[in-house]
Write a structure and sequence with these properties.
The protein is mainly alpha-helical and about 525 residues long. The chain folds into 2 domains: about 260 residues, no CATH class; about 260 residues, no CATH class. It is globular. The relative contact order is 0.09. This is ABC transporter permease. Keywords: Membrane, Transmembrane, Transmembrane helix. It comes from Paucilactobacillus suebicus DSM 5007 = KCTC 3549.
C-alpha cells in the first residue's frame, strides 16, 4: 500500500539522486582530466574550509578523476539520501497516525507492528533501488578511474546511510506524538551529527568515527574502497530498529513515548487570533529551530581561527608576506568561508518556512481549521497568519545562525571582524528565503496537490551554489535559484538594487497566493 501510494514521489526522489550523481560523473573528466587541474583541485580539497564542508581528502597518489568525484560527492549525497529517508519514514508512520489512517488499517486483520514493518520494507526497497540506479549511472558515465567495486560501494554505502537515518526517523515517530515534532527532531539529529563531523574533521579526523555521520566519508571511495563502515552503518540501523519496535509494541496508537502535557484551563491573554495561536502552538518548535541554528552558526564560527590562519595552513606563502598582508589574507579567507556558510544557513532557514506554509492545506485537510472558519475570521487573515508565522521563524533562524557564526567566530580569531559586517549576509540572503516562501505560498493556494514541488527551490539552490563552482556550473544556471543572485557578502557590500527587486518579487508571490487562496475551495479530508 505504501509503495502504491508513494510511487510518484519515490520516482522523483530517486531520479533526483541518481541524476545528480550521474550528471556530475559525466562532467568530472572534462573538469579534472588534466594533471594541472587535478593538482589544483586536490590542493583546494585539502584546505580547512573544504575539509569542513566535504570531509578530509585522504586518498593516496596517483589520483584519479573518480577519487576526486568520491571526495566531493559523498558527504553531500549522504545528506540528500538522509533527507529522503526522513521524509518517507515520517510520512509512512507518524503522519498516517495523525490522519487516522493507521487506526483504520489496524481495524482489519493485521498485526500491531504491520504499519511500522511496512514502512521499514518501503525504506529498504527505496534505498536498494536508488543505490542500484546510482551505480548504473556512475558506471555508464565511464569516468576515469571508476571501478565496479568503488561504484557499488558508493551506491550501497549511500543506501545504507540513508536507511540508518530512516530508522532514526522511525524512532522519533515513536517518541513524539505528531509528525511535525518527529520531523524536527529527525533533522536535528541529522544536523548535530553533520556539525560534529565538521568539527572533528578539522580538529582531529580520528574522532570523526564517533560522530556517526562521518562514517560515510570513511568509505575511501575509488582508493581504498573500505566496506567496513557499511557494516557499521547497518549494525547501527538494526540496533535503532530494535529499539523502535520495542517502543512501538508498548505505546498507544496516536500517542508518543513522551506524553502530551495537559493544556491550560483558560486561554492566555496573548491569544488574539490565528497568528498568536500558531505561535503558541509552535513555541517549542520555535525554540528548537532558533537554538539549533544559533549552535550551528557557533560551531562553524569556532573554526574561523583555524581556517583563517595562513601561517598554519600555508606557511610558505605566509613567510613571503608582511604581517599586515597575512592578516588581510586571513580575513579574506574567513569572509569567503562565511559566504558559503551563509548560503547553507539560508537554505536551512527555508526549511521551517516551507513546513509552516504547507501546514495551511495540511491543517485544513485534518479539520483543524473548521472552528477557525466558523468564526468571523477571513480566509485572507488565515493565509497571512501562516505566512507571517513562517517568515518570523525563517527570519529568526537565519539571523541567529549568522549571529552565532559572528560572535563565536570573532572569539576564535586574533583579529575580530565587526559583527555588522557578518550581518550583511543576513540582510542579503533574506529576500532569497522570502522568494522561496512566496513560491510555496503560491503553490499552496494554486496547486495544493503539488505544493511539495517548492522543495526544489532550496534543494537546487544548495546543489547549484555548493557544487556549482566545483563543476563549473554556468552563472545563469546558478541564478535559476533565488540564492544565486546574492553577491559575495560579507566580503562585499550588499547590492541594494538586488535586495529590493527580490524583496518585491517575494511580496508579489505572497500577494498572488493570498488572492488565489481567498477564492478557491477549502480542502476537506
Amino acid at each position: 500500500m505504501n509503495l502504491r501510494r508513494d510511487w510518484l514521489k519515490i520516482v522523483v526522489w530517486i531520479a533526483v539522486l541518481a541524476g545528480m550523481m550521474a550528471g556530475a560523473a559525466g562532467k568530472f573528466d572534462s573538469l579534472y582530466g588534466s594533471k594541472a587541474s587535478m593538482n589544483s583541485i586536490v590542493t583546494t580539497l585539502k584546505t580547512p574550509a573544504m575539509v569542513s564542508l566535504l570531509g578530509p581528502f585522504t586518498a593516496n597518489k596517483p589520483y584519479t578523476v573518480a577519487v576526486i568525484y568520491g571526495a566531493e560527492m559523498v558527504v553531500f549525497m549522504g545528506l540528500i539520501a538522509a533527507m529522503m529517508n526522513i521524509y518517507f519514514a515520517i510520512h509512512a508512520t507518524r503522519s498516517e497516525e495523525d490522519d487516522g489512517v493507521t487506526e483504520y488499517v489496524l481495524a482489519h486483520g493485521v498485526g500491531r507492528q504491520s504499519p511500522l514493518l511496512a514502512s521499514v520494507g518501503e525504506l529498504v526497497f527505496i534505498n536498494l533501488v536508488a543505490g542500484v540506479i546510482e551505480v548504473i549511472g556512475i558506471q555508464a558515465a565511464s569516468m576515469s578511474g571508476t571501478t565496479a567495486n568503488g561504484s557499488w560501494l558508493f551506491g550501497i554505502g549511500l543506501a545504507a546511510f540513508g536507511f540508518m537515518f530512516g530508522m532514526v526517523s522511525l524512532l522519533t515517530a515513536q517518541i513524539f506524538n505528531n509528525a511535525r515534532s518527529a520531523t524536527i527532531w529527525s533533522y536535528l539529529v541529522l544536523g548535530i551529527t553533520f556539525v560534529a563531523r565538521m568539527v572533528t574533521d578539522i580538529q582531529n579526523p580520528d574522532y570523526t568515527w564517533w560522530t556517526v555521520y562521518g562514517w560515510i566519508e570513511k568509505l575511501n571511495l575509488y582508493n581504498g574502497n573500505n566496506w567496513g563502515p557499511v557494516l557499521l552503518i547497518l549494525a547501527m540501523s538494526i540496533v535503532i530498529l530494535a529499539v523502535t519496535v520495542g517502543i512501538s509494541a508498548t505505546r498507544d496508537i496516536g500517542a508518543g513515548l513522551i506524553a502530551q502535557r495537559d493544556g491550560r484551563n483558560k486561554a492566555s491573554v496573548f491569544l488574539r487570533g490565528p497568528l498568536t495561536l500558531l505561535m503558541r502552538i509552535d513555541r517549542v518548535s520555535f525554540a528548537v529551530w532558533f537554538a539549533s541554528l544559533f549552535v550551528l552558526g557557533a560551531m562553524y564560527g569556532s573554526i574561523f581561527g583555524t581556517i583563517g590562519n595562513l601561517m598554519k595552513t600555508n606557511p610558505t606563502i605566509a613567510q613571503l608576506l608582511s604581517s599586515g598582508a597575512v592578516s588581510s589574507a586571513n580575513r579574506a579567507i574567513v569572509m569567503s568561508f562565511a559566504n558559503k556558510l551563509s548560503l547553507v544557513f539560508a537554505v536551512v532557514a527555508t526549511i521551517p518556512i516551507l513546513i509552516t506554509i504547507f501546514r495551511i492545506n495540511g491543517d485544513e485537510r485534518k479539520g483543524y481549521l473548521e472552528m477557525m472558519h466558523a468564526k468571523p475570521i477571513s480566509r485572507g487573515k488565515m493565509f497571512f497568519s501562516y505566512s507571517i508565522h513562517a517568515m518570523v521563524v525563517g527570519t529568526g533562524t537565519l539571523f541567529l545562525a549568522v549571529l552565532g557564526m559572528a560572535v563565536v567566530g570573532n572569539a576564535s580569531m586574533k583579529s575580530p571582524v565587526l559583527v555588522s559586517r557578518f550581518l550583511r549576509s543576513f540582510i542579503a540572503f533574506w529576500p532569497a528565503i522570502l522568494i522561496a516562501g512566496g513560491v510555496a505560498a503560491l503553490l499552496v493556494a494554486l496547486w495544493p496537490r503539488i505544493q511539495t514541488v517548492a522543495w526544489i527551490v532550496p534543494v537546487y539552490g544548495i546543489f547549484s551554489l555548493y557544487f556549482g563552482p566545483l563543476v563549473k556550473l554556468p552563472k545563469s544556471l546558478q541564478q535559476v535559484s533565488p540564492y544565486g543572485w546574492i553577491n559575495n557578502v560579507p566580503t562585499k557590500q550588499i547590492q541594494w538594487d538586488t535586495f529590493w527587486w527580490m524583496t518585491l518579487l517575494g511580496m508579489v508571490l505572497f500577494i498572488i497566493g493570498y488572492l488565489v487562496y481567498r477564492h478557491r475551495d477549502l480542502i476537506e479530508n
